[in-house]
Every structure is written in structure tokens, then in C-alpha cells.
Amino acid sequence: MKYFIDLLVILAFVLSASCNKEKEIKPNDFNEFWEQTVIELNKKPVEFEKKSKDSIVEGKTISLYKIRSFQDVFFYVWVSEPVDNGKFPIKIRFSGLDRNNTNRNEIKNFWFLKQKGYVNMLVDIRGQGLSTEQINPKEYITEGIKNKEEYIYRGAFMDAVRSIDFISENKKSNGKIIVTGGSQGAALSIAATALNNKVSLCVISFPFLTDIPDYDKTKWPMKIFLHKAKNNQFDYFDLKKTLSYFDMINFAEMINVPVFLRTEEYDDITPKEGAIKFFNLLKNQKKVLYIEPCKGHGCSTKSIIANELEKTFIRTNIIN
User: Fold this and answer.
1) Beta-bridge partner residues of 262
2) What gap in Å lies between CA 67 and CA 55, rounded to an integer?
3) CB 268, CB 219: distance < 8 Å
């Protein structure tokens, strides 16, 4: 009987440890890891090169720049400045997961660069869009995922940080910087806000890599993560440990600026529950969460209500 009770105690301990490991989200060295990564980035000054002649379109001067970033990887950005004299807020858009936009003669999201009253910047992080000269993996989201040091999003987040340092020196800047984007672009905006104190406002939509442990294991992206782990013979919990360093939930407490967040009622890729959890962890009380009653990843993009709320939020926290 005693042997049976001891066995039950051991089994309960093992199950408890397993559950705790399953629920473990934020590593103890999370902040230190990212602080050291930023320190490594900043060992080299911001270096850039203009790659196109200035073009003037609808009152904005548009240019393409190549910027040196983390571990000597270059990435590209489009910048548009008002031709009018004066100082303007900066608005940065980080793109979603897109690896097909490689044509320098055709600017995706050109509508963003044409916005009036801002210095605008479109960022193609490493391995995406125009920035595929040095890095161009077959499966982007799993590249280097076996450990946190080599995972592609470590460098990608540093590209976001460096892009802010670059544009903050723009002569037409009034010192206010807004970061924005949807899905992956939202994740990059969150990481940039958490890791670069030059950001003034964060405006995001249905953020990717948020509350990853609750992602559906039968669907993209978790299905792809698990497939990669199985094929490369590394442990499921090691996979989750690596991903925990890139989970937006763990960046939330590092953000101290106003945040506007929109998401969808039904989204299989970035469930609203993760967005809500992230929102609740934000310290700054100048924050707004809007959930559009629609189904599908990104279906809130054209929401009239969300767009008006976002404009008001920016106007209240930046323009005024």
C-alpha cells in the first residue's frame, strides 16, 4: 500500500511539473536577453545609403534607403517627406509576412507613403520584400528556430529597432514617432516599442506571435512550428522555450506609451484572447482595444469604426 501511495505522489509531482512547464511563458532572462541583443546592435553606429533618386509624388519626396543592421545584415526602407517646410510626426509601417514584394519600381502600400502631414517610412525587415539579398529562407517563420540566438525574428526585431534610430534623425521630424502594422507588422511594432524608447505611440492590428502557447496545434503557424521541431528532432518544450522569447505577451510590460489595438472576433491565426491578454498587461492607461465582429485574419482592416477610432486616438495622443 505504501509503495502505491509513494507511486501516486511521484506521479502527481511529475504531472505538476509537466503542467507548470506547459504553462511557463516568460523566461527569467527575457529582459536581459533583449537588452544584450540591443547592446550588440548598438556596438555599430547607424549606417545607411540612399539607393534611389528622390521622386516627388503628391507633395511628398520619396526615397529608398539601405540600412546596416544586426550582425551586418542590410534591410531596405522607403521614406517619404512632405515637400512643405516644417516639422512633422513620423509614422512607420512594418509590413506583414510578405516575401514577394521585390520590385523596386513598384511600392507596396504606396497609399501609406502618400499620407499628408507625416514623414512616413515603410520597412522591409531582413528576408522580406526588398531585403532578401543576404537572407531568403524557404520557410521564414521557422528559420533558425532551434535556439533563440539564431531565430530569424531576433534579427528582424533588431531591424525594427534600427529603423527607428535611422528615421529619428530625419531633419523634418518633430520628435514624435508612431509605429504601426498588422499581423507580423504588429509584432514588429510591439517589439520596436518595447526595445526603443524613441517610440511615442503604438497602433497595431491583430498581432502575430501573441500568446503562442494557446495557438491551435492543428493550424498554421503552430502546425509548422511543430513540424519543424519533429523533423529536426528537438523537444516540444525546447520549441516553446525558444518561442517564448518572441511572444508579444512577454513584451507587454516593457511598453509605456499609448497603444491602440484592433483585432477580430473570430481569427484562427491570431485569436482575440491573446490580443486581450496582451492589452490587459499594458501599464499605460492611455490604451484602446477594439474588437471587430467579423471572421478572418485581417478582416478588421476595413472597419469604419476601427479606422475612425484609430484616427481619433492618434489625433488625441500625438497631433494635439
Assistant:
1) 205, 290
2) 19
3) yes
